[in-house]
Amino acid sequence: MKSSVETVEVAQPYAQALMSIAQSKNLTEEFGEDARSLLNLLKNSEQLQNFIDNPFIQPENKKGVISQIMGESANSYLRNFLLLLVDKRRIAFLEPILQQYLALLRQLNKTVLAEVTSAVPLSPEQQQAIEQKVIAITNARQVELETKVDRELIGGVIIKVGSQVIDASLRGQLRRLSLRLSS
């Protein structure tokens, strides 16, 4: 099991190296899209995640799968970076490296990540309203929304931006009302 400190210590330099490559080739946004796609693929495929994390699988096999996933049309710099991670036996840190790269990209673009939890899926209008509210609060240039659905909220939303949490859910309002009534 990897500790979070160890993960950050390994992921940070690799993410910074990937950002340096992306900036030198003017491919920061393209790498960002590819990173999001890879993270989504890893999140939705436990089998792929286990394959990449397994230290007993031969590096050549991992390289073959990565080359298949990336395809011929993928950026050669990113593909070579992933193959280098296999060679350096750091491919198990792929997810935190990509997440750290996206954090660096958000920092570069003055974008904030807002994690939004709602009782039901949000409409595009609701997402836009939340984005505008977060921009007003944070003075960021852009907002990247990461939405989750939690049926236990009953209604409303919980918005988390960095360490700031805005609880506008019915469950939160009921909890605050209960605390006021009991005191």
From TrEMBL:
Gene name per UniProt: atpH
Transmembrane spans: none
Q: How does it sit in the membrane?
A: Peripheral membrane protein
Instruction: Cite a single Pfam family from the UniProt record.
Output: OSCP
Query: Belongs to which family?
Result: Belongs to the ATPase delta chain family.
Report the protein name in the record.
ATP synthase subunit delta
Record carries keyword Transport: yes
Tell me where in or outside the cell this protein is found. Answer: Cellular thylakoid membrane; Membrane
Q: Which PANTHER family match?
A: ATP SYNTHASE DELTA CHAIN
An annotated GO cellular component of this protein is: plasma membrane-derived thylakoid membrane
Keyword terms, alphabetized: ATP synthesis, CF(1), Hydrogen ion transport, Ion transport, Membrane, Thylakoid, Transport
